[in-house]
Specification:
12 helices; four-stranded mixed beta sheet; TIM Barrel; elongated; alpha/beta
Length: about 350
């Protein structure tokens, strides 16, 4: 026997409407999430260094970039001397994923774009140049630096600082720690006027006569004091008496200092007439010159003529640190420095 059922079309329609409504309600969160991601997130199909990052919202992207950064970041490697062979192992740049810049780039990318990460360069603190005594800067650039060694001369220094200010010249003052301890205000004044304050050792000791621990202390103790006085740790070391050898250079490098010398010596500590100081500089002055001076009255008198001479030769006065930076930039360390003085 067959049973026949009749169904009211209105009931069917109502039931279908209920089902459809339920489906719509169930899909609303997904639709909303999709709309939000399309509006505020990374567009679909976008990849970063071959990894899919499409649809990620900013906060999700930040977490992903942190994870990727741990894989992609690479610390810089300092140059160092091999204790066995004595050869210098070269430095290497590092890199760090710039999370913020990479995120901006990804969020602005169109669908299915292939995006490369943005990295920040990490420079090594110690380079091969740290293991060479630097006598001058690059000869291809019209730069001149005044290096002023200070272990005495406090009676002349205020006037010397005023004269440099008048001439609009920034110099590098290599200061001993024992002098800086006695005259901290003069050290601060050097720094405040835009000059470079550098390391001349704690006292004017003969570096070659010191053992390794004493030599290290000669440099580090003064660096600590000068950093305390100026807020900036020195990175340049001028050995007292100009005594330099491979060991001195190595220990200075290990303390984060370049060892800097000079190419033009005024011999002004003998206090010759200003005319002789000018003549000594004039005979040797050229691009990349580092001119050694001291705070003496003849130097003060000669300074305007020295600056005029520099500018007559179309040279620009810079600090020794800027000269060293120019060497680093141009990679001319081997042509302008000596590894075994």
């Amino acid at each position: 026997m067959r049973l026949f059922f009749t169904v009211d079309a209105r009931v069917v329609k109502r039931a279908l409407g209920v089902v459809a409504g339920a489906l719509v309600l169930a899909s609303l969160p997904w639709l909303w999430d999709t709309a939000v991601r399309l509006r505020y997130g990374v567009k679909p199909g976008v990849t970063l260094a071959g990894q899919a990052v499409g649809w990620l919202l900013p906060e999700e992207l930040d977490r992903r970039l942190d994870d990727m950064g741990r894989e992609l970041d690479r610390p810089a490697r300092d140059a160092k001397e091999d204790a066995t062979t004595g050869r210098v192992i070269p430095e290497a740049e590092g890199r760090e994923l710039d999370r913020a810049a990479t995120a901006r780039k990804l969020l602005a990318a169109p669908p299915f774009a292939r995006v490369e990460p943005v990295f920040t360069r990490l420079l090594p603190a110690v380079t091969r140049l740290h293991y060479r005594a630097i006598y001058q800067g690059p000869s291809a650039r019209p730069l001149v630096a005044f290096a002023i060694n200070v272990d005495w001369g406090e009676e002349v220094l205020p006037a010397l600082l005023d004269r440099l200010e008048q001439e609009k010249v920034r110099a590098t003052f290599f200061v001993t720690g024992r002098w800086a301890q006695k005259f901290p205000e003069l050290v601060r004044r050097m720094h405040e006027r835009g000059h470079e304050v550098a390391n001349h050792g704690w006292d004017h000791a003969h570096a070659r006569q010191l053992g390794d621990p004493e030599l290290r202390a000669l440099i580090a103790k003064n660096a600590d004091l000068l950093e305390q006085l100026t807020g900036r740790r020195p990175t340049l070391f001028a050995p007292p008496y100009g005594e330099v050898d491979a060991r001195i250079v190595r220990i200075a490098a290990e303390e984060g200092h370049y060892t800097t010398m000079w190419s033009v010596d005024t011999i002004d500590w003998q206090r010759p007439p200003a005319e002789i100081i000018v003549d000594r500089v004039e005979r040797k002055l050229g691009p990349g010159a580092i001119v050694l001076m001291h705070p003496t009255q003849p130097t003060l008198e000669a300074l305007p003529r020295l600056v005029a001479l520099v500018r007559q030769r179309s040279l620009t006065p810079v600090t020794v640190g800027q000269m060293v930076a120019a060497l680093e930039e141009e990679g001319q360390a081997s042509a302008h420095t000596s590894a075994r003085p």
